[in-house]
Write a structure and sequence with these properties.
It contains 2 helices and 13 strands. By secondary structure, the protein is mainly beta. The strands form 4 sheets. It has a 7-stranded antiparallel beta sheet, with no helix packed on it. The protein has helices at residues 5-12, 125-134; strands at 23-35, 39-51, 54-55, 58-61, 71-74, 77-78, 83-95, 100-112, 143-154, 160-169, 172-176, 179-183, 186-194.
Protein backbone atom coordinates (compact mmCIF):
# COMPACT_ATOMS: atom_id res chain seq x y z
CA UNK A 1 0.00 0.00 0.00
CA UNK A 2 0.99 3.61 -0.50
CA UNK A 3 0.40 6.22 2.18
CA UNK A 4 0.78 9.97 2.21
CA UNK A 5 3.48 11.08 4.65
CA UNK A 6 1.53 14.17 5.70
CA UNK A 7 -1.48 12.00 6.59
CA UNK A 8 0.77 9.86 8.79
CA UNK A 9 2.21 12.92 10.58
CA UNK A 10 -1.22 14.52 11.03
CA UNK A 11 -2.65 11.32 12.48
CA UNK A 12 0.22 11.10 14.97
CA UNK A 13 -0.50 14.62 16.22
CA UNK A 14 3.00 15.43 17.48
CA UNK A 15 3.55 18.20 14.97
CA UNK A 16 6.79 17.08 13.35
CA UNK A 17 9.03 19.91 12.16
CA UNK A 18 11.82 19.89 9.58
CA UNK A 19 14.77 18.13 11.14
CA UNK A 20 17.60 20.29 12.47
CA UNK A 21 21.24 19.34 13.09
CA UNK A 22 21.92 17.68 16.40
CA UNK A 23 24.45 19.49 18.61
CA UNK A 24 26.38 18.35 21.63
CA UNK A 25 28.80 19.82 24.11
CA UNK A 26 31.18 17.52 25.95
CA UNK A 27 33.23 18.02 29.09
CA UNK A 28 35.94 15.59 30.12
CA UNK A 29 38.26 15.52 33.09
CA UNK A 30 41.08 13.02 33.38
CA UNK A 31 44.21 12.29 35.33
CA UNK A 32 47.07 9.91 34.57
CA UNK A 33 50.01 9.12 36.83
CA UNK A 34 52.63 6.51 37.65
CA UNK A 35 53.83 5.45 41.08
CA UNK A 36 57.32 4.03 41.70
CA UNK A 37 57.50 2.92 38.04
CA UNK A 38 55.22 -0.01 38.91
CA UNK A 39 51.69 1.41 39.13
CA UNK A 40 50.11 3.22 36.20
CA UNK A 41 46.73 4.80 36.91
CA UNK A 42 44.39 6.48 34.42
CA UNK A 43 41.06 7.97 35.60
CA UNK A 44 38.54 10.03 33.64
CA UNK A 45 34.95 11.25 33.70
CA UNK A 46 32.79 12.92 31.04
CA UNK A 47 29.47 14.66 30.50
CA UNK A 48 27.88 15.18 27.08
CA UNK A 49 24.86 17.47 26.70
CA UNK A 50 22.76 17.13 23.54
CA UNK A 51 20.51 19.74 21.93
CA UNK A 52 18.07 18.88 19.13
CA UNK A 53 18.62 15.24 19.93
CA UNK A 54 17.52 13.11 16.97
CA UNK A 55 15.66 9.87 17.52
CA UNK A 56 13.10 7.78 15.67
CA UNK A 57 9.80 7.30 17.50
CA UNK A 58 7.39 4.70 16.19
CA UNK A 59 4.17 6.01 14.68
CA UNK A 60 1.21 3.61 14.58
CA UNK A 61 -0.88 4.65 11.58
CA UNK A 62 -4.35 3.33 10.83
CA UNK A 63 -5.43 4.02 7.21
CA UNK A 64 -8.92 5.50 6.86
CA UNK A 65 -9.84 3.06 4.10
CA UNK A 66 -8.83 0.04 6.22
CA UNK A 67 -9.44 0.60 9.95
CA UNK A 68 -8.74 -3.08 10.69
CA UNK A 69 -5.12 -2.65 9.56
CA UNK A 70 -2.30 -0.50 10.82
CA UNK A 71 1.25 0.28 9.77
CA UNK A 72 4.25 1.23 11.91
CA UNK A 73 6.57 3.98 10.73
CA UNK A 74 9.78 5.23 12.36
CA UNK A 75 10.41 8.85 11.46
CA UNK A 76 13.41 10.87 12.57
CA UNK A 77 12.64 13.91 14.69
CA UNK A 78 14.37 16.42 16.96
CA UNK A 79 13.42 16.11 20.59
CA UNK A 80 12.75 19.28 22.61
CA UNK A 81 14.07 17.61 25.76
CA UNK A 82 17.69 17.87 26.77
CA UNK A 83 19.61 14.61 26.77
CA UNK A 84 22.70 13.99 28.89
CA UNK A 85 25.22 11.19 28.50
CA UNK A 86 27.79 10.69 31.25
CA UNK A 87 30.33 8.22 32.48
CA UNK A 88 33.60 7.51 34.22
CA UNK A 89 36.47 5.09 33.84
CA UNK A 90 39.45 3.81 35.79
CA UNK A 91 42.39 1.85 34.45
CA UNK A 92 45.21 0.39 36.57
CA UNK A 93 48.34 -1.42 35.40
CA UNK A 94 50.84 -3.02 37.75
CA UNK A 95 54.33 -4.09 36.61
CA UNK A 96 55.24 -7.29 38.48
CA UNK A 97 58.75 -7.52 37.05
CA UNK A 98 60.68 -7.17 33.78
CA UNK A 99 58.47 -9.77 32.09
CA UNK A 100 55.02 -9.77 33.71
CA UNK A 101 52.30 -7.16 34.27
CA UNK A 102 48.66 -7.07 35.36
CA UNK A 103 45.90 -4.70 34.27
CA UNK A 104 42.30 -3.89 35.17
CA UNK A 105 39.76 -1.41 33.84
CA UNK A 106 36.26 -0.36 34.84
CA UNK A 107 33.90 1.82 32.78
CA UNK A 108 30.53 3.17 33.88
CA UNK A 109 28.13 5.05 31.60
CA UNK A 110 24.56 6.31 31.70
CA UNK A 111 22.16 8.81 30.22
CA UNK A 112 19.20 10.89 31.34
CA UNK A 113 16.71 13.50 30.18
CA UNK A 114 16.16 15.73 33.23
CA UNK A 115 13.43 17.91 31.70
CA UNK A 116 11.45 15.09 30.03
CA UNK A 117 7.67 15.50 30.33
CA UNK A 118 5.14 12.87 29.36
CA UNK A 119 3.06 13.83 26.33
CA UNK A 120 0.18 11.43 26.90
CA UNK A 121 -1.83 11.91 30.14
CA UNK A 122 -3.17 8.35 29.84
CA UNK A 123 0.31 6.83 30.22
CA UNK A 124 2.24 6.76 33.47
CA UNK A 125 4.96 9.46 33.33
CA UNK A 126 7.70 7.10 34.50
CA UNK A 127 6.81 4.42 31.95
CA UNK A 128 6.91 6.94 29.10
CA UNK A 129 10.23 8.33 30.33
CA UNK A 130 11.73 4.84 30.55
CA UNK A 131 10.58 4.11 27.00
CA UNK A 132 12.13 7.38 25.81
CA UNK A 133 15.45 6.63 27.54
CA UNK A 134 15.54 3.19 25.91
CA UNK A 135 15.01 4.86 22.54
CA UNK A 136 18.16 6.96 22.85
CA UNK A 137 19.90 4.15 20.96
CA UNK A 138 23.25 4.37 22.72
CA UNK A 139 23.00 0.58 23.16
CA UNK A 140 25.88 0.30 25.60
CA UNK A 141 25.97 -1.44 28.98
CA UNK A 142 26.12 0.60 32.16
CA UNK A 143 29.04 -1.45 33.51
CA UNK A 144 32.08 -2.86 31.68
CA UNK A 145 35.24 -4.33 33.16
CA UNK A 146 38.37 -6.06 31.92
CA UNK A 147 41.33 -7.85 33.48
CA UNK A 148 44.57 -8.72 31.73
CA UNK A 149 47.80 -10.63 32.34
CA UNK A 150 50.67 -9.81 29.99
CA UNK A 151 54.18 -11.12 29.52
CA UNK A 152 56.89 -9.90 27.16
CA UNK A 153 60.52 -10.62 26.36
CA UNK A 154 60.17 -14.33 27.18
CA UNK A 155 62.56 -17.10 26.14
CA UNK A 156 66.34 -17.06 25.64
CA UNK A 157 66.07 -14.62 22.77
CA UNK A 158 63.39 -12.59 24.61
CA UNK A 159 61.26 -12.80 21.45
CA UNK A 160 58.08 -14.35 22.88
CA UNK A 161 55.06 -12.76 24.50
CA UNK A 162 51.68 -13.80 25.84
CA UNK A 163 48.55 -11.83 26.63
CA UNK A 164 45.42 -13.04 28.43
CA UNK A 165 42.37 -10.77 28.57
CA UNK A 166 39.00 -11.18 30.29
CA UNK A 167 36.17 -8.72 29.46
CA UNK A 168 32.77 -8.42 31.12
CA UNK A 169 29.75 -6.45 29.82
CA UNK A 170 26.67 -5.96 31.99
CA UNK A 171 23.18 -6.45 30.57
CA UNK A 172 21.58 -3.56 28.70
CA UNK A 173 18.51 -2.53 26.72
CA UNK A 174 19.02 -2.76 22.98
CA UNK A 175 16.81 -0.54 20.83
CA UNK A 176 16.54 -0.27 17.05
CA UNK A 177 13.87 0.34 14.43
CA UNK A 178 13.36 -3.41 14.24
CA UNK A 179 12.57 -3.92 17.89
CA UNK A 180 13.75 -3.87 21.48
CA UNK A 181 15.31 -6.54 23.63
CA UNK A 182 17.57 -6.99 26.63
CA UNK A 183 21.10 -8.12 25.84
CA UNK A 184 22.09 -10.31 28.81
CA UNK A 185 25.40 -9.86 30.60
CA UNK A 186 28.26 -11.74 28.98
CA UNK A 187 32.01 -12.18 29.21
CA UNK A 188 34.76 -12.95 26.74
CA UNK A 189 38.23 -14.37 27.33
CA UNK A 190 41.03 -14.45 24.81
CA UNK A 191 44.67 -15.44 24.72
CA UNK A 192 47.31 -14.22 22.28
CA UNK A 193 50.81 -15.67 21.87
CA UNK A 194 53.22 -13.66 19.81
CA UNK A 195 56.77 -14.02 18.48
Amino acid sequence: NQYNMQDILNADGRGFESIQPEKNTSYELGYRTSLKNRWYIDASAYLTQYENFINRPNIFFTPENNPEDFQIFAIRQNRPESVNGYGAGLGIDYILNYHWSLGATYDWSGYDSPDFEASNPDIDDQLEKEAFLRSLQFNIPEHRTSFSLRAKNLGKSESWGIHYNFRYNGSYDYFSNFGETVIPAFNVSDVAICY
